[in-house]
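Quick one, probably user error.
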């Protein structure tokens, strides 16, 4: 009797889990049902209303608190990783990474990251002085907003692998948060990390892209993302072969960089336009750049783009944390990249 009862409970539970898990399309692709982009839009609104979240300022810290509170409310284990950094003038500041983890049944890990700081002013790209300061809506409240919605949706799903969401601080002044995190990963953590998904500026550019890192960084996470995007009917693209970059790769200008230096496969999402600028892309055929300009406010953000990104990223993370993936292949690490001090973004031209 007891056994029968347990079986029935199990059956009930199994049916419940099945119903709450995911839709499968005809090809068997698992798609989390609840991604709508609506919660992402709310997060985006809140973060941009704070104003520019410049590294080392109270506003950056207020954004960090908001993000940590959100992750906690979703039931994640949250760690605040403080680190020393420099602002764009080279002055010492302090910033933090907000790390939310759900430990899986096996030790395989997938990292999803997005920086939450933004710039105040970039002399090179700045608009007229009398226009309002951008609020980092696209760069990168959009990435954080997508990450938070995906985290919330996936918190209701059964996954097997460990998932680690990281909101990085102080990206704009030199990838300080992601470098600090990557440099402090244990050897075991590096080996267990199947992929790093980076979200940077995913709400405003012309077209939807995903790339791997450069120089032999394994491209399978990018390729899986492309396949998922295609099956969902989205025009998800990657970078063309050019004099500057090999097909499917891009520059080291965002938080994927320290992870690809460790040899971890990268899938880096952004909205961009490589048709008008095949050597690194330009954001918009009309405005040229939205990031780092006074255009970077909510009026230039497309909620449809946010939703499409959340859709693909949610499915990608779901796929990656559902199955046991091949162990990280050490042979594929870009030559000589392990255990070196990872250079700042501004130390190299790209
Ligand atoms: Zn950015």
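Nope, works fine. Designed sequence:
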């Amino acid at each position: 009797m007891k056994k029968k009862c347990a079986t029935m409970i199990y059956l009930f539970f199994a049916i419940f889990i099945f119903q709450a898990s995911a839709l499968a399309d005809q090809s068997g692709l698992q798609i989390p049902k609840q991604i709508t982009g609506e919660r992402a839009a709310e997060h985006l609104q809140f973060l941009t209303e704070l104003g520019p979240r410049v590294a080392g300022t109270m506003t950056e810290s207020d954004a960090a608190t908001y993000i940590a509170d959100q992750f906690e409310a979703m039931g994640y284990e949250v760690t605040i990783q403080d680190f020393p950094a420099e602002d764009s003038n080279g002055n010492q500041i302090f910033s933090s990474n907000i790390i939310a983890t759900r430990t899986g049944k096996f030790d395989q890990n997938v990292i999803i990251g997005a920086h939450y700081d933004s710039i105040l002013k970039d002399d090179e790209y700045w608009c007229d002085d009398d226009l309002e300061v951008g609020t980092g809506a696209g760069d990168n409240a959009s990435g954080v907003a997508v990450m938070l919605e995906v985290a919330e949706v996936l918190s209701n799903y059964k996954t097997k692998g460990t998932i680690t969401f990281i909101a990085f601080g102080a990206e704009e002044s030199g990838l300080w948060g992601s470098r600090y995190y990557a440099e402090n990963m244990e050897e075991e953590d590096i080996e267990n990390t199947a992929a790093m998904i980076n979200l940077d500026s995913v709400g405003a550019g012309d077209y939807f892209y995903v790339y791997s890192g450069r120089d032999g960084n394994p491209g399978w996470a990018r390729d899986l993302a492309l396949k998922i995007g295609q099956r969902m009917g989205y025009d998800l693209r990657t970078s063309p072969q050019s004099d500057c970059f090999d097909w499917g790769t891009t520059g080291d200008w965002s938080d994927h960089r320290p992870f690809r230096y460790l040899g971890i496969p990268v899938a880096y999402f952004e909205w961009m336009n490589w048709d008008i600028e095949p050597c690194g892309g330009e954001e918009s055929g009309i405005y040229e750049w939205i990031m780092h300009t006074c255009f970077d406010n909510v009026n230039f953000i497309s909620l449809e783009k946010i939703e499409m990104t959340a859709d693909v990223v949610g499915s990608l993370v779901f796929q990656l944390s559902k199955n046991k993936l091949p162990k990280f292949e050490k042979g594929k690490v870009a030559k000589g990249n392990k255990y070196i001090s990872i250079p700042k973004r501004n130390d190299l031209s790209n």
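The domain at 28-338 is CATH 3.40.630.10 (Aminopeptidase).
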